[in-house]
Each structure stands twice: as structure tokens, then as C-alpha cells.
Amino acid sequence: MTTDSASRTVRPGTFTPRRQVSHRPSASEGSVGRIPRTILSTPGNLGSARKYKSKLSIDARARVSHRPTSHLSPVLCTPPKNKSYDASRPKTPTTPRSRSRGAESPYPSDVPSEMDVTQVDPEEVLVDYKTVGAGDISGEIDEALLLQDRGKEDKVMVSIRIRPTTSPAAWEVTKGQPRGIKLFPQYGRSTLSSPPQFNFDEILTGSENKPVYNAVARSHVCAAMDGYNAVVFAYGQTASGKTFTLSGNEEQPGIIPRAMKDVFACIRRTPSREYLLRCSYLEIYNETIQDLLAPPSSTTSHIVEIHGSGSNVWLSPLREEVVTSLKGVREVLERGNANRRTATTNWNERSSRSHSVFRLVIESRERGESMGSAASGRSTPGPPRPPTPGGPRLQALGGRSVQMSALSLIDLAGSEKATSDRERTKEGKYINQSLLTLGTVIGTLADNAAKHKADYVPFRNSKLTRMLQPSLSGNARISVICTINPDTDAVGESTSTLSFAQRIKKVQLSAKKGELMDTEALLQRYRLEIEDLKKKLAEREAGSPAKPGQLSAQEKLEESKAMKDLSARIRQLTKLILTSQTVEEREASRPASPARVDFDMTPYQLQQELLAARREIETKSTQILSLEAALLARPELPPDAPEDSKDRHIAKQAKTIRELEIIVAGYEDHLGEPLRAVREDVEREWEVKLEKEAKLRREKEVWAEELVKQLEKERKMRNKLEEQGRVLAAFVNKFDALGLGSDAPHTPPRSKNTYEVFAERQKTKLGSFASSDDFSSNAVDSPMRLQLSHIKGHPNLLEQMPEEDPWNDLSFEVEVGGKENIRY
Ligand SMILES: Nc1ncnc2c1ncn2[C@@H]1O[C@H](COP(=O)(O)OP(=O)(O)OP(=O)(O)O)[C@@H](O)[C@H]1O
């Protein structure tokens, strides 16, 4: 066990029935006898008597002059020491103050830890709309304000707050959207280059804290109430107004007190949920994390360690206080602030010498029908579960899941120049170093986001960045308010603050709602899902008989697949429920395991536990195997078994049969039938398609046959023509051989001309002409030689004859081979 739990043993837990929370004295009230009344009666001392040495603007002065009690009034000179202030918030002496607070803390050393979260039953300290008193809320929340940055949820919201000044300002705010801030050219480093200009989500001026809260923090507070982690932090040069913005003072409450009011306002506006609120407050001083709420009497160290890595980081030992009212929160804040380290520096009368983190963990769940732990019933019997540092305390009951988120409000120490004081110089070195690391981390994250890289981010280089790792890595809505001093002698620091603001704007976020479920909640979710799925299945079933004709095969397939999916999911969920119930039954029937995990254990202890658990599992597995073998070897129930166990067995079997029947019926109804019908439809559709294709093919074959015939005809025709050509040539040669033509001077026509001879030959059936060789040898003297020479030079001339054959007019018939007459 850790020191934390050791300390728990000396602090008896005081449980108060939950319904009485609003009526019973709160932690602070309860200890009135021990805590000085002066402290309780000055709730607003969070930001009391803060001053800075530079002058305020005229309007700020005018405002404070109307309020003589305002803590902003004595700004024109170094403030006189304020006794009550000193008493409530001790300043750091020249060396860091001792952590044994008996002397310094306003709280006596025996302040009980009544609201320590480890000492109360969470079910007894829930807050809901009934328990929130009218004084706990800030009035109506403007819905429009909550919706303001909804569109920028994946980006860090970055705003600038310019502290009022009476000196000439080096910066001017540009008009329009996005809001810009520009350095007057005369204050730029070089007159040649244009002076820097920056654009941001908001640029705020003046001393009013309400508009600042509304603009930069309200939507983030509401996001935290909605289940998202949210971080608001102030960054800037020393004395630029970070603490004034975060904590403010009685006149001008800052972001923290306003946020707390809104938390309770939100609870009051949400009657359907109940909440468990717990807060912690720490500071990082000289790279050491100190618990600002640790009880002064505690002998244990106040040094808090960071455990875990990546997005799973937690702090331990860290005291968390349950708060049930605004008064309770205020008391916690006062106590923490009283322990914070501040000191007078050259620039700030009360400079924060550390980074402070106020964290509110919000757990909530739907309200049950009846209230109280007995009515709602714990899902796990026995004593409350061991505390989990940073983990859930509220249990998911009756299927109601628990939403868990954290709202972190961070006041960073301011960057500063060197000072003559050695102690301040050392602190300043640590402050500057951790701010530098924050800048590097932000720069790398921004670069990674812009260039889609995954470069190593040096979170571990400082406690601050390591602690902020889960949020900076993306799982939080972040709002940064950068405070600047507009004076001309702070241009360098302001420019560096604005560059940091510019870089952090590029960091990519993707906050997820934190939801926790226990077995019962999961089972309930499964049951609801099954109901829903069954309804859907029934609707589909009811709709499908009306549709079949209208659906295409594809649609039917999809419909069948959807039904199949639904049935599969129902089966899967039913199985999950049965498995979980069996596990739960077994859990309930056996004594609590001695190996139940205590989350306060050290990693070594956990490892040992793990080894022991593994060994036990092995032994149990062997036992199970042998038991199973024995079970198989004997009948389920001996014949002489008692009647009631027989009945139980029968009931169990009947239940299994019913389950199987449902599954089988579901399969048959929703899977078998539609599939068969679909298959038939598909087959029918394809048959028609096939027939069409076959017909088309037949038609094509006929066409192809026709084509072949046509070709054959053409080929024959061509052969015939060639044959005719040859016959004609032979005829002409013969004609010449008969001496009916010569190159000699024209002889008077003889008694028979060519046609007559031809006709005569035809008559005497001179069908067998001499071979072409014959007639070519005789062709020399042919009167048609001239024309033949043309033909010889162009063997294909006959083929190329124009369709309008001039020889047509000279047509005559000749008998070829005694078979048929050919017309020429
Ligand atoms: N906007 C403002 N209007 C009026 N007064 C302001 C404003 N901002 C800061 N101040 C005053 O300036 C002084 C210094 O402010 P504050 O302590 O908040 O600075 P800081 O940035 O937290 O400094 P450090 O980093 O040193 O802690 C305080 O007295 C505060 O009241």
C-alpha cells in the first residue's frame, strides 16, 4: 500500500447521506470550529491585493476610483502591505518556504480530510439539480455564447489579453475579423521590414473579467460538463495579468471562480444527470510538483510524481477533494492559494513563482429512478472499490454509463528577465526553462500537424509538458489566453508571447467524450441494441413480401445480406449477454478474489500480482481440464438426484433449447427462405438472358453462312471472268492468226470481215481453239497487235475494266469448251 492509503488509516471517513448534502455543513462548514472564521469569511481573497508597478490606463483608473475597495486601486505606486492579504496568502520568503505548514498555513495542523475522495463513499456525495443552491449558480447561461467556438473544436482557441496601461502603447488592435494586433512601425526592430502583425480568435482589452471569461473559457467549461477534457491556460510575460485573468479578485472574479459557478449552473440545468465533482490543486515549483491541498499534518511528502506515459498519465500521491457546493470549491481554492508560492520581483509585487494547476474531475451518469446507493444498488457487492488515481470513482449502475472528464485551469508562471536576487534568479531559470520546453513541444506539435509528420515531441523535458501530454496530444479542448504588456519597453517579450500564441494555434486537437461502462451498463446496452435490431428485422420482414416484384436481383441480395447481418448481430449480442451473465453469476457466487487489483500499488507490486495471478490461472486451468474430463465421464444428473435439481436441470435445458430455437428460427425465417427465393429469381433471370444470347448466336451463324455463300459466288464469278478473259485473248489471237489484221498499209476489205468469220466459226462450232501458246505465236501479224501490246503491259487490265465496258456494244456470243455460250 502506498503512503496515501497509510495516511487514510489515520483519517476516519465521515459519510453523510447524500440527500442531506445541501443541508449539512460542507467540509469547510464542518470544520468551522477548527478553521479561523476570518478565512472562511473572506472567500474572495483569491486575487486580493495584486498589483503591478506600471501604470493603469485612464479608464481602468476611472473605474477603480469609483470602487475604493478595489484591489486594482493602488496600482500607481508600490502597494502598501496588506495584512489580511499576507495572512491568507503567504509570500515566498527569500528561500522557498518549508512544507511543514503548521506555522505558515492558515489551517491548523489537524484539519480533517472529510472530503478526501478516498474517504467518502461517492454515492453519498453526488450533486444534482436539487442539491445545487441558488447561491451556487451564476444565473442564466447564454446559449449563444456556448455555441461560439463549436466550429473550431479541432483547433486550440487562442486569445490575447492586453493589460491596460497609461504609458504609450506599442501595439494597436486592428478592426474586423479575425481580430488582429499590430506593432506600430516606429517600435519595430527594423524600419525596413514591415512590423509584425498577428491574428487571433479574440483580442481583449480592459479590466473587466466577465467578457474575458465569456469569450475564452465558458464554452470550454460547458464542453467539460459535456464529457470532454478541457484545458484553459494563461501564458505571458511576468506581470502581464495571468493571475488576474485566471483568479481575479473580489471585484473582478477571474476564470476559475466563474467557471465553478457555471459548473453548478450546468448541473442545475441538467435534471437528468447526477454528478461527482472532485478537485485537486498543485503547483510546479523549481521542477517539483507540490500538492497544494495536502493536509499540513501529513507526515508524508507533498511531492507528487507523474506516472504512466503517453495519453495515460496520472499523478500520485495527489489529494483530491470532493466538492458538493460552490462554497466547498471556494474553500479548496483558498486553501490551495494560501500554499502557493509568490514573491515580490522587480516587475510584480506578487509574482507567481510556480505554475499552478487547478483541476476539477467531473463524473456524471443518468439519474436512476430511485436515489441512494441502496436503491440503485452497487453492481459489485462488497466494499467500495479501491481508489484509482485520476480514475473513475462513480460506478456505472443499472446500465447507466459514466461520463468522465477533467477541466484544468492553469496559471503559468511568467517568463522574466534576470534579476539581482539569487533565489528569484534560480526560480526564473526553472520557469524560463519549462516555458521554453512548452514552446518547443508546441512548435513540434504544430509542425507535425502542418506537415503530417510524427516527429518526436520532447514532452519529458519538463514536468509541465509531461503533465499536459494527454491534453496537448489532442484529447482535450484547449483555450489559451496570452497576456501581454503593451508598453514600449516590453515589445520583445510581447512579440515572443504572440509568436508562441501563433504557434499553438496550429496544434491539432481531436477531443473524445470520456465514457466509462461497467459490465451491467454494457449488458444493458446490448439488451437495448438487441431490442432495436429485432424491431428493425421485424420491419424488414413486414416490408419484404410487398416488395419482391419491385426489387431487382441485386437489391434482393442486398436485402438478404442486411437481414443476415442483423441476425448475426443479434446472435452475437445474445452470446455476449449469456457469457457475461455466466461470468457475473460465477463472480457473485464465489468469495471476492484475493487478487483484486489495487490501483495504488507500485508497478513492482502489480507485476508480482500479475505473476501470482498467472500461476493461479495455470493451476485452475489444469483443474478445469481434469474436472471437465470427469464431467464427461458421468451423466449430467444421477438418476437419484433430488427433484429440485432435476427441475433446475430441465429448466436450464429448456432455456438452451429456446435459445437455439430462436436462433434456428431466425436463420430459417430470415436467411434460408430469402436465399432460396433469390437463387430462383437469379436463375430465371439468367435463363432468359441465355436464351436471348443463343438466339442472337443462331442469327449470326445464318448470316455467316450467307456470307460464305456470297463469297463463294463471287469467287466463281471471278474465275469465270478470268476464264472469259483468257477465251477472249485466245479468240483475238486466232483472229489475228487468220490474218484479219496487219501492220501493213490498209488493204481493201475482203469478202468476209471479222464478224462474219466469227459468226461462221460459231456456226461450224469451232469450239476448240488452239492453246494460248498457239495463238500468241501467231499474234505477230495480228491487225490488233497495237491493242494487245497495251494488254500485255497490264496483265490485270481486264480485271480493271470499267463497269461501263465500251466493249459491251461489240457484244457477241462464243461457245466455250462446247458447254455454254458466253456473251461478249
Ligand atoms: N487587465 C488588467 N486590469 C487591471 N489590472 C490588471 C490587469 N492585468 C493585470 N493587472 C494587475 O497587474 C498586476 C500583475 O498582474 P498579475 O499578477 O496577474 O500578473 P501575472 O502575469 O500573473 O504575473 P506573474 O507571472 O509574475 O505571476 C496585478 O496587480 C493585477 O491586478
TrEMBL record:
<dbReference type="InterPro" id="IPR036961">
    <property type="entry name" value="Kinesin_motor_dom_sf"/>
</dbReference>
<keyword id="KW-0067">ATP-binding</keyword>
<feature type="domain" description="Kinesin motor">
    <location>
        <begin position="155"/>
        <end position="507"/>
    </location>
</feature>
<keyword id="KW-0547">Nucleotide-binding</keyword>
<dbReference type="GO" id="GO:0007018">
    <property type="term" value="P:microtubule-based movement"/>
</dbReference>
<feature type="compositionally biased region" description="Pro residues">
    <location>
        <begin position="381"/>
        <end position="390"/>
    </location>
</feature>
<keyword id="KW-0505">Motor protein</keyword>
<feature type="binding site">
    <location>
        <begin position="236"/>
        <end position="243"/>
    </location>
    <ligand>
        <name>ATP</name>
    </ligand>
</feature>
<comment type="similarity">
    <text>Belongs to the TRAFAC class myosin-kinesin ATPase superfamily. Kinesin family.</text>
</comment>
<feature type="compositionally biased region" description="Polar residues">
    <location>
        <begin position="17"/>
        <end position="29"/>
    </location>
</feature>
<protein>
    <submittedName>
        <fullName>Kinesin-domain-containing protein</fullName>
    </submittedName>
</protein>
<dbReference type="GO" id="GO:0003777">
    <property type="term" value="F:microtubule motor activity"/>
</dbReference>
<feature type="region of interest" description="Disordered">
    <location>
        <begin position="1"/>
        <end position="117"/>
    </location>
</feature>
<dbReference type="Pfam" id="PF00225">
    <property type="entry name" value="Kinesin"/>
</dbReference>
<feature type="region of interest" description="Disordered">
    <location>
        <begin position="366"/>
        <end position="397"/>
    </location>
</feature>
<dbReference type="InterPro" id="IPR001752">
    <property type="entry name" value="Kinesin_motor_dom"/>
</dbReference>
<dbReference type="InterPro" id="IPR027417">
    <property type="entry name" value="P-loop_NTPase"/>
</dbReference>
<dbReference type="InterPro" id="IPR027640">
    <property type="entry name" value="Kinesin-like_fam"/>
</dbReference>
<dbReference type="GO" id="GO:0005524">
    <property type="term" value="F:ATP binding"/>
</dbReference>
<dbReference type="GO" id="GO:0008017">
    <property type="term" value="F:microtubule binding"/>
</dbReference>
<feature type="region of interest" description="Disordered">
    <location>
        <begin position="539"/>
        <end position="559"/>
    </location>
</feature>
